[in-house]
Each structure stands twice: as C-alpha cells, then as structure tokens.
Amino acid sequence: MCTVLRRRRDQTCMAVTGLVTMVTVCLLTISRSPSVSELRDSYQEFSSSVYHRLEELRRVKGCEGEAGDGAPHASTHHHLPTIYIITPTYKRPEQMPELTRLAQTLLSVPNIHWIVAEDSNTTNTQVVEFLKYIRLPYTYLLTPMPEVFRNPQLLAQPKGVANRNAGMDWVRVHATEGVLYFADDDNTYDIRVFEEMRYTKKVSMFPVGLLTTAGLSTPVLKEGRFVGWYDGWIGGRKFPVDMAGFAVSVPYLLSIYVWHTKTFRNAASSRNILKPEYNDTNLRVLQDLLIINES
Q1: pTM for the full model?
Q2: 181/82 Cα distance (integer angstroms)
Q3: 156-183 burial string, b = 16+ CB within 10 Å, else e?
Q4: Region at 277 (left for phi over 0; alpha for psi -120 to 50; beta for the rest)
C-alpha cells in the first residue's frame, strides 16, 4: 500500500514539474517580444496544456479514494485515527447551503469519513452529486423516520433518531477503530474540535454555544473534576448534553469547538451562568464567550 501511495505522489510531482516547465517556457517566449499573433497562439497552446495537465493532476488525486461510498480512504494522513462524522439531514430549502457550509469545514480536517443519513425513502440526487463533487470520503444512507412517528398529533417527533441509529449501525459493521461524532448540518464548527476528539479513549465532551436562553451547554468542572451540568433544559435527563457536545471512540461504541446555529436570530444568554455556585469552575472561562442579557 505504501508503495502505491508513493508512486502516486511521484506522478503528482511529475505533473507539477511539467506545469512549472510550461510556465517557464511561456515566460521566456514573452521575454523575446513576440508579435501579437505569436503571443496569442502561444497563450492558447499554453492554456490548453495547463488544462490537460491539471486534469491529469486531478485524476491522480482522485486515485487515492478521496471520494466514494465504502471504507475510509487511504491518504497521507492514514496514520491518524479516522473520525466518523454522522450528519442527519432532510430535504428543505436550507439543506444544500447548510451541507455546503459543513462540507467546507470538513475539507480542512484530515482522515474523516462523512456519513450523510437522509430522512427519505428515495435518493436525493442533488445531495449525492454534491458529495461526489466535494471528494470527501462519504457514505450516503436512506434513513426515513418510521411512519408511526409521522403522526402530526404527536407532541414531539424523534427527528434525526433513525438517521443517527443507521449511521451508528454502519460504523459498527465497517469500523473497529477511530472516533464517532454527530455533526448536524445546521451547526457551525471550529475545526480545532475535531483534533481534540481524534484521540478519544472512551467519551470526550465539548461546550456547545447558542443553546436555549442559557446560551451554553457544557459539563461543569471544578479543579479538574466533574461537578454537574450546565444546560438550558435539564428535563430529567441523566446526561443533559447537546448531540454536538460529545464524541465516542469506536471501540467503546462496539462494547456497548462547536456552535449550535440556526437561521433565526438568537437572544442574549440568561444570567444563570453568573450565579455564585459556578465560581471557580470552567463556566467562568466560558462566560467570556457569551453575550449575556444585561437585565
């Protein structure tokens, strides 16, 4: 495998060297003050050669499996643990803009596998063509919500649950190492959070901003120890955290920086974070990142 990758890198270097050579020849030709017609012909020939050379370079890169449905690709970052990113999605006006924003973030993160799970019974060709275009390693899944939950009389629908469960099932079948993370397409992510989670041994957790009037969802730490939860909706939950607030190692799954953004305007955070009970905890650091209601 290493030999194959090295050979591909050599091909890439040859393509780049050829491109530089063509640029040099073109500049030398221009330095001899050619006629307008000679310059036009030279430029057209140069443009055509550059186009074909770039196409060759593009094909060489594509050979490394940077796009496709299946196992994670081999790359120059193959020594890094793979991050399996599960993104639930559904057809709506904002779907493609939000997937585009997330994809452009993920393009900066090495060695990931993007699992896009759509709430649909039929393939969304627009999403699939987009996934092919961006050349990230991906798997596209059809994961419709069970009909029993589509009853409009229900007080709440389990949106995204079937998508995430199907994504986890895929990881259980296709992976034995790495890290699992849920990244909704309507969130905004600091790429540093992915490097923080990459070496997760069991579970790692992160603060998530712009959530409810509390403005923040996070574990509360004091002197390096967990002492409780800070979240706008505890709701009797044993682990009151946002889906974007944790990552799980794949081995642990097999044994058993993030901003929550919306298209509407968010209100200022409540003043709960200023309560004395949170003195000497990590909330005193995180509060500086919030816009807190002054009244």
Answers
A1: 0.65
A2: 11
A3: eeeebebbbebbbebbeeebeebbbbbb
A4: alpha
